[in-house]
Structures are given as C-alpha cells and as structure tokens.
Amino acid sequence: MLGLNKADLRLFLIVIAMLVFAPILLNPFPDTSGMAQFNAGYPDLMQKLVIFGIFAIGFNILFGLTGYLSFGHAAFLGIGSYTGVWMMKLLTMNVIPALIASVVVAGAVSLLIGYVSLRRSGIYFSILTLAFAQMFYSLAYSVLTPITGGESGLSLSTDDPRIFGVQATDGGNIPVPTVFGLDMSHAVTLDFGAWSFTISTGYYFAAIIMALAFYLAVRIFRSPFGLMLRAVKSNQNRMNYTGLNPRPYTLAAFVISGMYAGLAGGLMVAMDPLAGAERMLWTASGEVVLMTILGGAGTLIGPILGAGLIKYLESIVSTINDSVVHGWFAPLPDWLENTLVTVLHPFIGKGWHLTLGLVFVLVVCFLPGGIVEGGKKLGNLFRRKRSNGDAPTPGTGSTTAEQPGE
Amino acid sequence: MGILEVSGVNKRFGGLQALGDVNLSVAEGSCHAIIGPNGAGKSTLLNCLVGKLIPDSGTVTFDGQSVLGKKPFEINQMGISRVFQTPEIFGDLTVLENTLIPCFAKRDGVFRMHAIESIAHEADLLAQAEGMLEELGMIDKRNMHAASLSRGDKRRLEMAMSLVQNPRLLLLDEPTAGMARADTNNTIDLLKQIKEMRNITMAIIEHDMHVVFSLSDRITVLAQGTPLVEDLPENIKGNPKVREAYLGEAQV
User: Fold this and answer.
1) Closest Cα to residue B100, out of A242, A233, A396?
2) At what angle do helices A6-25 and A43-60 cross, to 10 degrees?
3) Do residues B112 and B213 share a domain?
4) Chain A touched by B199 (CB under 8 Å)
5) Of A220, A224, A245, which has the smallest distance from its Cβ to B104's Cβ?
6) Both B74 and B179 in a single domain?
7) How far apart are CA B224 and CA B226, in angstroms?
8) In chain A, whose CA is at the least distance from the CA of B88?
9) What does each of the 252 residues of chain B score in pLDDT, given as a tens digit?
10) ipTM, 2 dp
11) Pseudo-torsion of CA A329, A332, A335, A336, nearest 10°?
C-alpha cells in the first residue's frame, strides 16, 4: 500500500498515530499534579517538535545516507524563514505560498552552496558548509539588514503591501497566518476531569506536513536513488569504476536536505511570523547534527526521536529551577534535600545543556546507533526471553543485513 | 585491429620514465596478459586505460574511440570494467545490493534521479543481479553484508559486479596478489570458468607468471616501462629476455 512494504507501512502508520494523538500522549499528567510541568502537550512545544523533526528528517537524507556531515544547514532554515515572512508581507497571509517559496529559495541557495562545498569531502566539506552558514549569519546582521531586519529580526507590519490580503484587520492589528481561512493559532481546550488537552490548527497543520515529509523520506530511502546515496557513503571509488558519477547524487541529496530545512524554516514563521538571524547561528546547525546522531543516523525514525528528545529536554529541563527541586525533595531531611539540590543544580534550568551533553556522550559511547539501536536491543532482549531455550533462528545473526532504517 | 589499441604511450613521473613508447593491441574475444617484474609500469599502464592517469603522449583507443581525458565512470559506460587488486566493493551494503548497483549504472547511465520508484519494483534488474549471483555460486549469501564476506568471496562478488554489466573488456589488476596458493588456484578456476561461460575479452595485469600461463591467449612482458616481448604463452616461458627481466642478468 502507498508503494511501501509492510514494515515501512507499519512505521508510517505509527508515526501518523503518534502525530494525531500527540496532544494526548504528551500530556499524561493531570494539570493539578506536581508532574504537570513534564507535560509537553501544548501547541508551542508540539509545533517545535514537529518542525525540528522535519529539519532532522531532511538532514538525515544527506548525513545518514551519504555520510556527508554538513555544519551549515541552519542557514537554509533561516533562509526559509525569511522567505516565508516576505511572502506574507508581500502576497498573502495564507501560509501555503509562503511554504512553497521557502522550499524553492532554500533549494536554490543549497544548490549553490552544495555545488561549491561538495568539491571537497570529509572535514573540508564540513568546514566549507560551516563557513557559508556563518557568512549568511553575518550578512543577515550587516549588509542584508534591509531584507532581514538585522538585529530586530524580520516581522510583519500594517504597512506591508499584502497584495492578496488585508494590510490590517478591522481592529487595526496585523493579520495572523492562516491556511485557507483557518487561523493558525486557533486552539480548543478539551477538559477530561483533571486532564486538559489542547487541540490547535497550527500543530495539526505542521503534523500533516511532517507526515508528508516523512513519507517522502521513506520513498527516497527505498529508491534506487537512495541506494546510490548509500553507495556514496560506502565506496566512492567503486562507484566511479562502476559507471556512476557520485557528485550529482551527493548534490541532489544536499539540495533535498536543504529544501527540507527551508520547509522547516517556513513552518516556523507560519506558526509565528517572526524571523531572526540567530536561527542561522552555527549552534543551530550543530543541533540538527546532534538530533540525527542521538536518534540514529541513517534510520528512518531516528531523526524524529532525536529532534523530539532534544526539544523536549530544552523546553522542560530548562524550566525546572532550584525551588521546583526543593519542592520534590521537601519530605527529606533538610541536609539531604540541600545536598541533592546542589548536585542537581548544574543540570537544570539554564544548565540544561549539561544534561543534553551527558545524554549525548552516553548515547555515542554506548549506543552508537542512537535511540533506534537502543530500541532494537531492548526488542531483541524481550524476544530472547520469550523464546527462551529455542535455538537461535538462522539468518538473524549480525552478519545478516537488515533493511536500513527499520 | 584489436578492441583495445595502445600506441606510443609515454608517462613520466618527475625523473622516472614509467612508461616508454608502449604499444599494445588486445584482440576481441582474447585473454591478454601483461606481466612484468615489480616496477615495470604495469599499474601505470592500467591506470592510463581506465582514466585515472593521462599519458604524456600516445593514444589509447577502445573500439576506435579515444579514452584519454575521460573520467573513470565514462570509460566504464563505454564498456570497460575494472577489477581491483584488493576487492573494491560496497562494504556497508548487502551482496545483492552490491550486484544491483552496476545493473542500475548500466541501464540508467552515470546519474538518474529515480528517487520515488521502489527498488522492490525493479523486477528485471533484480532477476539479472540474482542470476549473476547464482552463476557465481553466491546466491545464498545475497543478504549478507559485503564487508563480512571472506577474501575469496569478496573477489567473487567484485567479479559478479563487473560481469553483470556485460562489459566488452574486463581489466583485472593482479587478481591474485597477496593470496595464498589455494585462493590463487580458486581465482584462476573462477577466471577460467568466466572465460568459458562468456566469450569475454580480458586483459590481466599480473606479477606472477604462473597465474597467467594457463589462462591467457597472448602475453606481453613489460620491463622498465617498455614491452619486451609479445608472444604466445608457450613461447614466453623459454624466452631468455624474459628470464633476464625477471631474474636479473647475473643468473642468466
């Protein structure tokens, strides 16, 4: 079905189910309980999870399949954002034209950067992409200020032309992004006893886009083109002597991942029409690398999990401060409570990067295949327990290749 | 007129004349061996044929077309396939995927953006690749990672990857280098099998004379960058010039 094999179809349906039920799944704790701060089911955060998921899915097509490590993909994210805002300033508040333009412009710029950067491989390629991204970041703050808004960022105003829309609402406000008349920020809160779930247009719109982006990625993974990208990673010399030119394959992967980044950038401004240059900073480029590796580079679902974990940690761990921790340990004797708070202090609040860093180090050291490998190991453990005493089935050994991305 | 014509090829690396006025003609359907002691310029010559090096002067034509200045993948598309000294395969991919890639290259050329189609729907090419593996006795290893194969199987796989493209000329670069005696014999048998099954034109670069005697129809002996003799295998063995090149003057 849908041109996917059974395993891929199952994975795709799981992703869709996760997306549909995310507002409920991510809000497991009653609003009144002390655990409510671990709830992630509010539109702002869910949109972030989904948008960075798209960013990471695209990045994985380049890094996971070809092995080319770009350190400049945040530039395409930023370019997508600026393009999106400009479309809303000039044309209409409907986000569809904005998204299309974001993808096209980001694709065009990535073609240019990719063409130059892919003349080198390995660390030199990474450095070239980093240099380009930092160049765009600096330009956005300096000479390109008329286009990017410089330090204050690019935002909408009531003076914008908006040829196919209104300059200002009846109340004199800036109009909000819509999709065919539906207000992006529109949300409904459903209360079930102590639980409350927020259903928002913006999140579900982003979720539909991510489902499409994921589906496309699965098709690419299973296509002859995807096989060639894995060949690029494995042995370029062999490719050359097999009658294949690795360069256009790698460039195509670079452009596709740039377009995914542009789409993510466009979605960001579709949710909140404000673009700033900090989106293009090298740390943002590094973040998508972390997401991909943390989840499992070269796997289908890994980048989504990685993006989810990082954005969750960022939003949740950073809001935990000392007084919250004091609350947790209040029943303990004072000296123990204070010691625990002192120990935890560097890992929470503004120190959430330390937590992220530790998680990353642990994953890279013990699970080089990321969260996906961890899941597989757990799965194997359960299976072995269940079939206790049975002889190992032939063909499940480590020499048997598994399909990539399961 | 052979299918591969090398005439007047010179190649110099700084002060070293690696190839000096090399002339060579490989007849269609034959197995032509190029042997010589270490440093005779065998590998340099091979690299001139596959587009890795460009000779300083002279011409190399394949089926009447010059190969000089062409990229390795363009030369492969002309119908020349190369097997390496140490097997070059896609280690991260499965044996079947390894064999599929050359099929795609042959059908779709150096680049094609087939990003939406599924490999599972390429029945023709899958059958072609599996048939090739069957022929070389590797079909039961089709789902193994290529990197986990034994040395001999890697060689076999590389051969399958070349043959599945139905090349018009197969270039073999020291196919038995560094192999134990048993492996060497296996490889010779494999090459003989291939030669019998398909009437393929082969050019073998080899250091070890024994490997090529039973295989080749014609042998060129290269010494210090120039062809010394070209003759039938049986005439090469006793040739004093060849003995001299291999063993050194003192022992003649």
Assistant:
1) A242
2) 160
3) no
4) no
5) A224
6) yes
7) 6
8) A238
9) 789 999 999 999 988 889 999 999 999 989 999 988 888 888 899 999 998 999 999 999 999 999 999 999 999 999 999 999 889 999 999 999 999 999 999 999 999 999 989 999 999 999 999 999 998 889 999 999 999 998 888 989 999 999 999 999 999 988 887 778 888 888 888 888 888 888 889 999 988 777 888 888 999 999 888 888 888 888 887 788 887 777 665 443
10) 0.92
11) -70
- Best of B47, B49, B84, B93 to substitute, by most chain A Cβ atoms within 10 angstroms, is B93
Measure the CA–CA gap between A111 and A259, rounded to whole angstroms: 10
Residue B41 lies in a domain: yes
Chain A residues within 8 A (CB-CB) of chain B? 3-5, 219-220, 222-228, 230-231, 233-235, 237-245, 248-249, 252, 256, 395, 399-401
B43 lies in some domain: yes
Token code pair at residue A25? 């799944």
Instruction: Give me the numbers of helices (H) and strands (E) for chain A, helices first please.
Output: 16, 6
For residue A206, the distance in angstroms to the closest alpha carbon of chain B comes to 23
- Chain A residue numbers with beta carbons less than 8 Å from the beta carbon of B144 are 399-401
Range of the domain at B55: 1-79+167-252
Q: CB B143 to CB A5 under 8 A?
A: no
Contact list in B for residue A400 (CB cut-off 8 A) is: 143-145
Do B252 and B176 share a structural domain? yes
Residues B242 and B178 in one domain: yes
Question: First-to-last CA distance in chain A?
Answer: 17
Q: Which of B118, B125, B141 to mutate to test the interface with A (most CBs of A within 10 A)?
A: B118
* Residue A336 within any structural domain of the chain: no
Q: Which domain holds residue A15?
A: 6-27+39-281
| CB within 8 Å: B73 and A245 | yes
Residue A76 falls within a domain, yes or no?
yes
How many folded domains does chain A comprise? 1
CB contacts of A222 in chain B (<8 Å) are: 118-120
Residue A182 lies in a domain: yes
Domain-located, residue B63? yes
- B161 & B190 share domain: no
| DSSP E strand boundaries for A245-357 | 274-275
With CB atoms and an 8 Å threshold, state whether A231 touches B145: no
Residue B84 lies in a domain: no
